[in-house]
TrEMBL record:
Listed GO CC annotations: bacterial nucleoid
Alphabetical UniProt keywords: Cytoplasm
Residues spanning the membrane: none
One term of GO molecular function: double-stranded DNA binding
InterPro entries reported for this sequence: Nucleoid_associated_NdpA (IPR007358)
Species of origin: Vreelandella sulfidaeris
Region Disordered, annotated ranges: 25-48
Membrane among keywords: no
Family named by the database record: Belongs to the YejK family.
UniProt feature, compositional bias: Polar residues: 29-40
Identification of the protein by name: Nucleoid-associated protein YejK
Subcellular localization(s) per the UniProt record: Cytoplasm, Nucleoid
Domain of life: Bacteria
Signal peptide: none
Length: 345
């Protein structure tokens, strides 16, 4: 992932603990406006490794999604600053300092956010993104040239608590309802998430966990409707989960049309049409939610003329397993099966 621009600033609480202060990167305030051209750190392999590690961590974390608010109280100056930077009217250093100052002011009561603020403009394939991540430093132990153990500070890239990423390419394409802004949204960091929303000047859109759950429900309904056998059902479940995890790793949303083609190569539009015809209310692009996906798998079994297949999330709700008596209790009999049983009587 080539870096076009990258810079690191420092946020620290004042001695009285009342607010956060910014220490800009040395010489950054003296740089002249030059637009989005490769910076001196663009070819730095260490900085590239740092940004790569931050992206890897970011991709696995729970996130909120949305887009820049165009008007009203939610709208902020970030979108305008970005336009100025991409147009060459503001240098990357100027843009990053303005962003860091706004962050320090916005989160001045959250002193735990002190650390190194990494801002990077990067390109992967045809897509350009902007990543903002606050990284904490931790003390470790290293070995010096004399082979002696010595204190060695290092950045903790695996435990991000505050970060956001903007898909610049998608934003500039002006696609309707596109969710091109994402931000960390951990359960324990509600105030930080709210601060990031204000900082970014965005309106939150897609609820990734809810959308992912709805997609999995739509998939389960589709498998049941098509009456695939156990082996085919498992294969299609694996295809969906593998695709979702790959998009999760890349930090990109799932596309319903693309997923539909993978789930049924013989009828690539079938799953997509099932979703649309049943009106699940799903967005064309869905950010995958790691926690929801990790809980999704399909139980299947066949014995003595009985074939059973159901999603794991149903266990404990509409389906119960009594281990002591080796019984499976189905509380909500599928409509199609119920009709067949009624006719049999």
């Amino acid at each position: 992932m080539p870096l076009l621009q990258s810079i690191v600033h420092r946020l620290d609480p004042t001695l009285d603990g009342e607010r956060l202060t910014l220490t800009a990167a040395p010489g950054s305030s003296e740089l002249q406006s030059s637009g989005p051209q490769p910076s001196e750190t663009g070819d730095d392999p260490v900085m590239s490794s740092l940004v790569g590690a931050l992206n890897d961590t970011y991709n696995t974390k729970p996130k909120g999604w949305g887009r820049f608010a165009e008007e009203g109280e939610q709208a902020g100056p970030l979108a305008m600053w970005l336009r100025d930077y991409l147009a060459g009217d503001k240098s990357f250093a100027e843009f990053s300092i303005a962003l860091a100052e706004r962050l320090a002011k916005q989160l001045q009561e959250q002193l735990s956010v002190s650390g190194y603020l990494v801002t990077s403009h990067q390109r992967q394939g045809d897509t350009e993104t902007l990543l903002v991540a606050l990284v904490h430093q931790r003390e470790g132990i290293g070995i010096n040239s004399e082979h002696h153990a010595v204190p060695a500070a290092q950045l903790n890239t695996s435990q991000l608590t505050l970060a956001a990423r903007i898909n610049l390419t998608q934003w500039q394409s002006d696609a309707p309802n596109a969710q091109y802004v994402s931000f960390l949204k951990d359960r324990g960091g509600k105030k930080l998430a709210e601060g990031l929303i204000t900082l970014l000047g965005m309106e939150e859109g897609v609820d990734a966990p809810a959308e992912t759950r709805t997609l999995l429900k739509a998939f389960s309904d589709y498998v049941e409707k098509e009456d695939f056998d156990d082996e085919v059902s498992r294969e299609k479940t694996d295809t969906l989960v593998d695709y979702a995890n790959e998009q999760l790793r890349r930090g990109e949303p799932m596309t319903l049309e693309e997923l539909s083609g993978l789930v049924n190569e013989q009828q690539p539009k079938a799953f997509y049409e099932h979703i649309r015809n049943a009106d699940y209310g799903l967005s064309p692009e869905i950010p995958p939610d790691k926690r929801t996906l990790s809980q999704f798998r399909r139980f299947t079994g066949r014995s003595g003329g009985v074939s059973i297949s159901f999603d794991s999330h149903l266990l404990g709700s509409s389906i119960e397993y009594d281990a002591a008596q080796d019984r499976l209790i189905i509380k909500q009999v599928p409509k199609q099966l119920k009709e067949q049983l009624t006719k049999q009587d």
